[in-house]
Amino acid sequence: MTFEKDLAGNRAAFHNYFIIDRIEAGIVLTGTEVKSLREGACNLKDAYARVEKGEVYLHNCHISPYSHGNIFNHDPLRSRKLLLHRREILRLERDQKTDSQTLVPLRVYLKDGKIKVELGIAKGKKQHDKREAKRLETLHREASQALRERSKGG
């Protein structure tokens, strides 16, 4: 039985990108980063991942310094290495170059005592795509409200 607990999410990614595929990756962290993540002190809003020299790194992921840390606390915005299989890295590198896709972290979660990052292989949305998505969301919300109101009245 697998136990998962979300530690941080990136809702802005779903607004700004079309998510094509998802990949689970491990992450290399220091002790104070793990403790800080367990407190829920992580921000993925402007974060992205990039393949560099055959390895994948997570950039701009803000993990706040541990509240009970000392002078050996970590740098909140340092680049962190992601752990993936060689085949996955090669595929990501190929997709990044040929299809102009980007790697966006969707969430950070705890799985069986280990901290994992869910990466989304994404393609950027244009402004008109964002407007259309917002319009569809509003229509869906109004329809579900109408159905609720109708079922209450009966």
Fold blueprint:
Blueprint: E1 4-9, H1 11-16, E2 17-27, H2 31-38, E3 42-43, E4 48-52, E5 55-59, E6 62-63, E7 80-83, H3 86-98, E8 102-111, E9 114-124, H4 127-153
Antiparallel strand pairs: 1-8, 2-7, 2-9, 3-6, 4-5, 5-7, 8-9
If you had to describe this structure to a student in words, what would you say it looks like?
24% of the residues are buried. It contains four helices and nine strands; from the N terminus they run βαβαβββββαββα. With 154 residues, it is α+β, with helices and mostly antiparallel strands. It starts with a strand and ends with a helix. A hairpin with a 2-residue loop joins strand 8 and strand 9. The strands form two sheets. It has a seven-stranded antiparallel sheet. Strands 3-6 form a two-stranded antiparallel ribbon. The chain has one domain (4-125): Small Protein B, Chain: A. The mean pLDDT is 84. It has helices spanning 11-16, 31-38, 86-98, 127-153; strands at 4-9, 17-27, 42-43, 48-52, 55-59, 62-63, 80-83, 102-111, 114-124.
CATH architectural name: Beta Barrel
Outline: globular
Secondary-structure-derived class: alpha+beta
If strands are numbered along the chain, what order do they take across the biggest sheet?
A: 1-8-9-2-7-5-4
Sheet with the most strands, sense and barrel status: 7 strands, antiparallel
Give the count of structural domains: 1
Order of helices and strands: EHEHEEEEEHEEH
Number of strands: 9
* Continuous helix count: 4
CATH class: Mainly Beta
Contiguous low-pLDDT stretches (5 residues minimum) are: none
Rg over CA atoms: 19 Å
